[in-house]
Amino acid sequence: MCAEYMSPGRDESMSTRYVSPGLTRKTGDPVTIEDYAGSDCSGSGGVSSRILTLANAELSMDETVFLDGTQLADGTHYAIVNSESLSQITFSIPVWDDQEIRVIYYT
After folding, report:
1. Residues pairing with 64 in the sheet
2. How many Å from the N-terminal Cα to the C-terminal Cα in the chain?
3. In this predicted model, what pLDDT tens digit does every residue of 48-98 receive, in sequence order?
4. So what's the pLDDT on residue 61?
5. Cα 51 to Cα 43: distance, rounded to the nearest angstrom
6. Overall pTM surpassing 0.85 (yes/no)
7. DSSP 8-state symbol, 74
8. Looking at residue 27, what is its pLDDT?
9. N or C: where does the chain have the smaller number of CB atoms within 10 Å of the terminal CB?
């Protein structure tokens, strides 16, 4: 049911946001990958309803979110708000400050 990706391991660059221009889906749209730590979310570690503000406000609504390498389900584990000015993910499960968050989406 849930897919996993191979996490490169925890390091100091966890909050680095980057675009991988070499990745495309069949339609040719570029893939954007953003890596965060739970500490990038609002609120205290270990509670639900933490909010993560993404670097890009132009999500295609075809996003995939991973928490510590486990794929989360939209509507079950998180909800996303996307507007012209910002995109935010609100987690409905507890997120700890040291957990890795990866968001993959098409722009």
Report:
1. 104
2. 26
3. 999 999 987 766 668 899 999 999 999 999 999 888 788 899 999 999 999
4. 66
5. 8
6. no
7. B
8. 57
9. N
Q: For residues 107 and 10, what is the distance between their CA atoms, to the nearest angstrom?
A: 26
Q: Which amino acid is at 55?
A: A
Summarised one tens digit per residue, pLDDT across range 10-41 is 333 333 333 344 444 455 667 889 999 999 99
pLDDT of residue 8: 43
Express the helix, strand and coil content of the chain in percent, nearest 5 each. 5, 45, 55
Which value, to the nearest 10 degrees, does the dihedral of the CA atoms of residues 70, 33, 74, 100 take? 40
Q: What is the length of the chain?
A: 107
Q: Count other C-beta atoms under 10 Å from residue 8's C-beta.
A: 10
Integer Cα distance of 5 and 66 in angstroms: 8
Give backbone dihedrals phi and psi of 76, rounded to 5 degrees, phi first.
-105, -50
d(CA 65, CA 55): 14
